[in-house]
Amino acid sequence: MRRMQRFMVGRHGADQLSAFILIMSIFSMWIGRMTGVSLFMMIGYLLIGIGFYRIFSKDMLSRRRENSEFLRRSIPVKNKLKHWVESIGGNTKQEHSHRYYVCTKCNKQLRVPQNKGKKVIKVVCPACRNQMKK
């Protein structure tokens, strides 16, 4: 273990970009195995090489710059993906206690408690004050 620690002194080490590259290499190699297309396997091996090159690189300034650029570009994509997944799956914690409706006037999503005894309820949109019977 000490030999590895001494070897890694002065080297960049793993960061978010190198982890992403290694995960993409595994994914590419998995696709290559499933489809039988050797191009995906070669891309996977290339990505593994790039990932380990970044991890063992001694040029820390360039690797940090690359990682910060990756983070700057990936955070908006991650947030959009998170919102997309939440919009598809809904809020699972409140799935059974609340019902979700969309306002017919302003298209805002409304959260209404369910199972309160009435079959037909009157929903009022807080944004535009539109009244709907559901």
Structure characterization notes:
This protein is mainly alpha-helical. The protein has two domains: 2-89, no CATH class; 98-133, no CATH class. It is 57% helix and 12% strand. The protein has helices at residues 2-8, 16-35, 38-56, 60-89; strands at residues 98-102, 109-113, 122-124, 131-133. α2 runs antiparallel to α3.
Helical segment tally?
Answer: 4
User: Could you spell the SSE succession in H and E letters?
Assistant: HHHHEEEE
Query: Numbering strands along the chain, what is their spatial order in the largest sheet?
Result: 1-2
Residue-averaged pLDDT: 88
Poorly predicted runs: none
Strand fraction? 5-15%
Total domain units: 2
- Radius of gyration (Å): 25 Å
Q: What's the number of extended β-strand segments?
A: 4
- Assembly form of the protein: single chain
Structural class given helices, strands, pairing? mainly alpha
N- and C-termini, Cα separation? 66 Å
Task: Report on the biggest sheet.
Answer: 2 strands, antiparallel
Query: What percent of residues adopt helix (DSSP H or I)?
Result: 55-70%
Shape: elongated
Organism: Tindallia magadiensis
Transmembrane segments: 12-31, 37-56
Protein name: Zn-finger containing protein
Keywords: Membrane, Transmembrane, Transmembrane helix
